[in-house]
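Quick start: read one record
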Amino acid sequence: MTRTYTLKKRAEQQAGTRQRIVEAAVDLHGSVGPALTSLSMIAERAGVQRHTLYVHFPDERSLFLACSGLTLERDPLPDAETWRTIEDGIERLRVGLLSIYGWYERNADLAACVLRDAEYHPLTKEIAELRYGPFMATYQEVLGADLDRTQRTVLRLALNFFTWRTLVRESGLKQEAAVRVMVQVIDCTKEA
């Protein structure tokens, strides 16, 4: 029985170490950004040696996948499928944007760093496209179902994190007011 207990305890310790490493990386990605976060910084924050970090994550990509996975496990992106049942296109748009903007609010610091770094850091771009790309494509499809080409273009602007940040964080609009503005702009840009 001692052997089974020892193996179980060791597995728990390894899982705890792995979790500390991922938590440290998420914290750093949300403060300095993934592009400026070194593996040494992560190891120091997690309280482990670099070789221990490499035991759990043989490369940066595997660590980035674990970080983004943990983040989305804690607070998943909104599920657009629930919006398909809303028949009125404007109401569907309002409900969807409110949900997306709520996620942006809860994840603002991390999203700002990751999306900023995705502009120039290839690995961050790859992981951001992998994790967020399918959601954004579905949002565009579901929320843009009743919209014309010009309106769908404005919808892309409305879905953008930096649009939300400009409206809410920089201009001081409440979440509902920001959504109302974007819905009105989309509705008013209908092609003749």
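The longest helix spans residues 2-31.
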